[in-house]
Amino acid sequence: MKALTPLRLLAALAFSGFAISTQAADFTVAYQTTVDPAKVAQADGAYEKASKSKIDWRKFDSGAEVITAVASGDVQIGYVGSSPLAAAATRQLPVETFLIATQIGAAEALVARNGSGINSPQDLVGKKVAVPFVSTGHYSLLAALKHWNIDPKKVEIVNLAPPAIIAAWQRGDIDATYVWDPALGKAKESGNVLITSGELSKLGAPTFDAWIVRKDFAEKHPEIVSAFAKTTLDAYAAYRKDPKAWLADKDNVAKVVKLSGAKAEDVPVLLEGNVFPLASDQVTALGEPTTKAITNTAGFLKEQGKVDAVLADYSPYVSNQFVK
């Protein structure tokens, strides 16, 4: 090995320092099996390239599990629904919402199994309905029952994660479920949709998914959070520019299928069933609208006995600085 001259040594040290300064911190991201355009960016390694980091992507089955991982410090950035987000903020966990991932429409729904005897909402009384507790599906289920004037105590609501819901559905152990894909797709194969989250939104019970970040990580690495947000929004813009052309690209659909578990033929409907806010919409959304939605959701959760109290102000848990 050739010895380094003082000049070469200085140059090597300078280069090494430059490499360290441009290499951002490695971090862990909790994602879920939602069907969204950003799954393509995830599959392509676009997030790693934008953040100049190594990312450990971990799949979770529910927002409640994501919140637990983020609270423990094992995960720095996570994908959650508005219900677990409201519960986390109410517990005053050190997190903040930095991006609205989607405004949920037909991608979450209440499905009754064929042969269960459920032909109308009132038939839910006395039946077994599975849903992941403290999820957007759970919130929507309770909102639907309230809309139909059905006492939740008269329905056997059981707490199951999506994979367990699929297994229970196939065994015939449950009569209905409020869930998202891929479990939703499985249920719809032998069941009927009673109501979707999009329909509930019009009735005054909107739900959304969001990307959250630990506050300590965001304060130390704001450029990473901004890069993560921009990568997501670029993926949304690519889809919304021409949805038909985007879906015509079989490579796009294949990547979404791989990371979501949904069927290729279901991807178009699931994408159309949600709204993916663009950058211009995010700045406004990540203010009073989101703060109000979290406050209202927390109030509903308290009413249902899922949280003990509602905070006076949820604005510390929402930030638009990373999308400006």
From TrEMBL:
Name the keywords, alphabetized: Signal
InterPro entries to which the protein is assigned, alphabetical? Peri-bd_TauA, Solute-binding_3/MltF_N, SsuA/THI5
One GO CC annotation: periplasmic space
Q: What biological-process GO terms show up in the record?
A: alkanesulfonate transmembrane transport
Query: SUPFAM superfamilies recorded for this chain?
Result: Periplasmic binding protein-like II (SSF53850)
- Signal peptide (residue range): 1-24
One Pfam family named in its UniProt record = NMT1
In terms of Gene3D superfamilies, this protein maps to: Periplasmic binding protein-like II
Where found? Periplasm
The Solute-binding protein family 3/N-terminal domain sits at 26-243
Q: Which family does it belong to?
A: Belongs to the bacterial solute-binding protein SsuA/TauA family.
The protein's name is Taurine ABC transporter substrate-binding protein
Q: Which organism is it from?
A: Pseudomonas turukhanskensis
Lineage of the species this protein comes from: Bacteria, Pseudomonadati, Pseudomonadota, Gammaproteobacteria, Pseudomonadales
